Amino acid sequence: MLDSTTPPTPILLYDDQCGVCRGIARWVHRAAQAKTGERTIIERPIGSDPDALRALNPALDIWEAYATIHVLMPNGSMKLGGEAVAEVLRRVRSTRWFAWCFAIRIFGLRPFQAVLDLAYAILADIRPLFGCESCGSPSRPVRATRWVIRSVRAVLGKPHHPRPTKNFSRHAVAAAVK
Amino acid sequence: MIDQPAPPVRGHARAPGSGGSIRTVTSETFGPLVLAGEGPIVVEFMSYGCAHCRVIEPILQQVAESVKREETAFRVNIAVDPELAAAYEIQGTPTLIMFLNGSVIGRAEGPSPTVPNLLAIITQPFA
Questions:
Q1: Does domain B22-126 match CATH 3.40.50.2300?
Q2: How far is residue A125's CA from residue B79's CA, in Å, rounded to a whole number?
């Protein structure tokens, strides 16, 4: 499924326009190195070329890549969301010692993986709170939290300047001309 | 089981560039396809990292499919072609610009992602 240019190392795709994602990618870059010096996982920005992503894996959709964390496995499979996070933790030396627990099955269920899936879902949901315009629209609880934060900031004399329309992102233009 | 086969792609019928009702144009092809194109043309200025573009994508595909006999739809990825974004003073994404015989006759910034709204936006300037 993968072409000859694909390295035999998992690839973590991350949203380069999201501060949280960039921070995680930087941590992976530092931490994902074997004792021999080889990289155990490669981080790669999603970018803006859908064809380049499909060259990595024909089933990879660029919109989906921006919506959910993806890890591309050397065998051609993809891991998404909490599964992708578990794979990253398994590949990083400092977290490998506890990452084995995500594969534990109890009565056919993987309770630790379920907790990780939930944690990922929460993190993905609150990313917009950190000013990430590429992370999607926040859920109602997050919007409520943001409203509280903005209200507190307004009380403290830091007014919020709303965007002109709610379906419009200026961030993409700023990133394009950077 | 740790490794899982690649799941089917969800949500969007096709990624741009491989088909669908909206074709991608670049700064090289913008002139011949849009400015010199015949009939009503709508161009979406977008970015893959834009969440609003992600929301509007399947709806715009649907609308473009429904009007494809009368109108041609294109997309400009502003991350790849920032000069086109600058030329048309794109302030954010998604922005839809309607062209007729090479002239701009309509524009919508951050349209509400519903079929009736998008249909109205991309057909009314040509009515």
A1: no
A2: 25
